[in-house]
Amino acid sequence: MNNELIKLVQEEYKDARADLPKFNVGDTLNLHLKIKEGEKERVQQFQGTVIQKRNPNTNGETFTLRKVTQGVAVERIFHLVAPNIAKIDVVRQGRVRRARLFYLRDRMGKSARVREKRR
Predict the structure, then answer these.
(1) Across-strand partners of 41?
(2) pLDDT tens per residue, range 62-108
(3) Which residues does 98 contact at the CB level (< 8 Å), separation at least 6?
(4) In what order do the strands lie in the sheet containing 40-54?
(5) Cα(35)–Cα(61) distance, rounded to whole angstroms?
(6) Are 109 and 49 in contact (CB under 8 A)?
(7) Which of 37, 49, 64, 110 has the most Cβ atoms closer than 10 angstroms to its Cβ?
(8) What is the pTM of this model?
(9) What string of DSSP letters covers 25-63?
């Protein structure tokens, strides 16, 4: 029963997510999220580096964004077909040679930078 509901929701948002840009691990994204507070709804931005993507090219695709503000790191996992994602902007394209950038967790400052891909 639960899996059937998940599949129905994923099919509903499958075509609606065609407007999102293509991005890879290492890219810096500016994610616009719809936040509900009581009856009000607003858009909040979350800008960070993609450190992993899971289940690519499926409806269950997820990606993890990591941002560091004032020395505190925050990682959030987002579903690509989630209805609370309003917009995704690719700020920078990173040049990495790995599919998972978990080594960034141990680094701070300049050593945590990802090289930018030349266009």
Answers:
(1) 36
(2) 999 999 999 899 999 999 888 899 999 999 999 999 999 999 999 88
(3) 25
(4) 72-79, 62-69, 40-54, 28-37, 85-92
(5) 21
(6) no
(7) 49
(8) 0.81
(9) TT-EEEEEEEEEETTEEEEEEEEEEEEEEESTTSTT-EE
pLDDT in tens, 20-65: 888 999 999 999 999 999 999 999 999 999 999 998 777 778 999 9
Tell me the CA distances in angstroms from 20 to 4, 13, 24, 72, 75, one per residue in order: 25, 12, 13, 29, 21
CATH number for the domain spanning 32: value is 2.30.30.790
Identify whether the C-beta of residue 59 lies closer than 8 Å to the C-beta of residue 36.
Answer: no
Please report whether residue 119 resides in a domain.
Answer: no
Report if residue 87 sits inside a domain. yes
Please indicate, yes or no, if residue 107 is contained in any of the structural domains: no
